[in-house]
Design a protein that fits this description.
This protein has 87 residues and is α+β, with helices and mostly antiparallel strands. 56% of the residues lie in helices and 16% in strands. The radius of gyration is 14 Å and the shape is globular.
Length: 87
């Protein structure tokens, strides 16, 4: 039915798509979700995993008249780790 390792490959593709969106600069989860699709929860899970490994940083942004939101950005560790893919 499913090939071994399919879940790990699926997570890796999701994380690569999220990191690709973050290359443009800091961004909100909603903006990533609108661009790459999928479920909002899976994108949030990918961001949490990437943040735990040190590839993504986040900060809360408070805007006047709006609820606080979390912005995400790639760290230098992520850029160094993925630099070979861009060459």
């Amino acid at each position: 039915m499913f090939r071994p390792g399919w879940l790990a490959r699926r997570r890796a593709r999701r994380e690569a798509a999220v990191m690709g969106q973050l290359l443009a600069g800091n961004i909100y989860v909603y903006q990533i979700w609108r661009r790459i699709g999928g479920s909002f929860g899976s994108i949030q899970a990918a961001l949490c995993d990437l943040e735990d490994r040190g590839y993504v940083s986040s900060r809360m942004v408070v805007q006047r008249g709006a609820d606080p939101r979390r912005r995400y950005d790639l760290t230098s560790k992520a850029i160094d780790a993925r630099a070979w893919e861009i060459e």
